[in-house]
Amino acid sequence: SVYVNMPRKSGYNCPGDTITIAAEIDPSLGYYWSPANLIPDANGLTIKPAPVATTNYSITAYQIGAPATCPSRTATYTAYVEPYPMISVPDYHPTICLADSFDLSMQVRPDNPGYTYQWSPGTYLRETNKSNTKFYAPVGNYKLYMRALTPNAKCASNDSMQITVVPPFSFTDITPKDTTIHYGESVAIEAFGDAVMWSWSPV
To answer: How many CB atoms lie within 10 A of CB 148?
Structure first.
């Protein structure tokens, strides 16, 4: 009979990682690996491919010189490749007021419900291990680091963002308070305070 076995049938890895696949066959048999174009050295019972996508690696054993009535047998190893996460956030440098808590959302693709999420440092964060959290901190500039890992191979990607927290502003005065002008004339109006942005209306 034709004996061929793959002690380990499958595994998870990151794109491009070199993996080791070992097979067992009767030493009197001939064999070949496939897909041969994705295996750097297919001359032994142990191969070390580096798959970039999920791939089935097979070894087929056969009796040398045997008639067609003695069929070959094949064992297969499946290399499940988990793509590196792609991290993004809606705003990489938001400016917020001191009195506000700020919603943070780490968006990761491709979609995978099993991602592990990490935010750091966690000093001013409500939670550090979920995709969505809240940030609340004193006045200052803060850099946050984000990390996402796939569920099985733990393929990791990193990103970062900057948050600026500004103090509450005061609106102290506007001049002139009231004035009368002729039709077609213009008047200069000036506002006073320590706001960093102003909006006038009607425009």
So the answer is: 23
Query: What residues are paired with 116 via a beta bridge?
Result: 149
Residues in the chain with pLDDT < 50?
none
Greatest Cα pair distance, the chain, in angstroms, is 110
Q: What is the pLDDT of residues 33-84, one digit of tens each?
A: 999 999 999 999 999 999 999 999 999 999 999 887 889 999 999 999 999 9
Phi, psi (deg, nearest 5) at residue 38: -110, 10
CA pair distance 39, 31, nearest whole angstrom: 14
**Class of residue 47 by CB neighbours under 10 A (exposed 0-12, middle 13-18, buried 19+):** buried
What is the DSSP track for 87-132?
Answer: EE-S-SS-EEETT--EEEE-EEES--TT-EEEEE--TTBS-SSSSE
Alpha helices in the chain (DSSP H): none
d(CA 158, CA 155): 11
Residue ranges with strand state E in the chain: 4-5, 10-13, 21-22, 24-25, 30-34, 46-47, 55-62, 73-81, 86-88, 95-97, 102-105, 107-109, 116-120, 132-135, 140-149, 156-166, 171-175, 190-193
Q: What are phi and psi of 114, to 5 degrees?
A: -100, 10
Its sign, for the CA torsion 75, 2, 65, 44, is positive
Q: Is 183 exposed, middle or buried (0-12, 13-18, 19+ CB in 10 A)?
A: exposed
Q: How far apart are CA 202 and CA 200, in angstroms?
A: 6
